[in-house]
Amino acid sequence: MPKRRVGARRAAGRSRRLVLIGISAAVVAAGAVVTPQAFAGTSGNGTTAAAERGSFLQRLRDRFSSGGAQTGGGNAGGGNAAGCSDVELVFARGTGEPQGLGIVGRPLAQALAAGLDGQKVGSFAVVYDAASNQRSAGPGATNMTEHIESVAQSCPETQFVIGGYSQGASVTDIAIGIRGAGTAGKAIPAALRERVAAVVVYGNPLGLRRQTIAQASPDFAGKAIEFCNNGDPVCGGGNTFSAHLAYPRNGTVQRGADFAVGKLG
């Protein structure tokens, strides 16, 4: 490949990284203004506290001994064990946000539970650094995948809705097997992909590569929805920074929940 073309690609890659790194501080600063409640117990029903208590196995032990992280009512479905959710949202927060579901994931969990009234709806906040250098996306994908594997084994009827915001969308991309979406991470095994009913992402950096989940991951194309606001520099190459922070209040959270509810039947 000519040196000039290699240099141009490297420069483009550096430019994308600078955009993503530059946005992280504002996500934190503006998040408390956009949705102040998102930073108070953002895990959705105690997930953050569980994550901070110790190892992954300990979190699972806490989860099932306490009946799971539930946000909805009703009874567990068919073959599920006691304490299992009918549906679980597994969501990765954006760059720089404190551990938890974050400014987008928290209202999404609430909207999903409201749309599935009569079912047990749980939520899990992916445990990862959400570092400004974007290199934590791969480890985040591994945590997302391993959590799904563990819950799927214990709860044979639980269905999953997965997603993320900003770098959390990259976490999701890697977890569904999209190559080159970030650092290396573990993808959801093929045998479990049918258990993922819907994929909902916001401000997905994959858009900077002029790609969508539908294009890059055929297995999930029919059950994925992506939201990229006009002018969002993270997913659309725009220059309106506030567009990347508008998802919690512009109706797209409800639209994402409605889409997932539709896929869950």
UniProtKB/TrEMBL annotation:
What are the UniProt keywords, alphabetically?
Disulfide bond, Hydrolase, Serine esterase
Q: Which domain of life is it from?
A: Bacteria
Supply the Pfam families for this chain.
Answer: Cutinase
**Key word Ribosomal protein present:** no
- Tell me the protein family, please: Belongs to the cutinase family.
Q: What is the protein name stated in its UniProt record?
A: Cutinase family protein
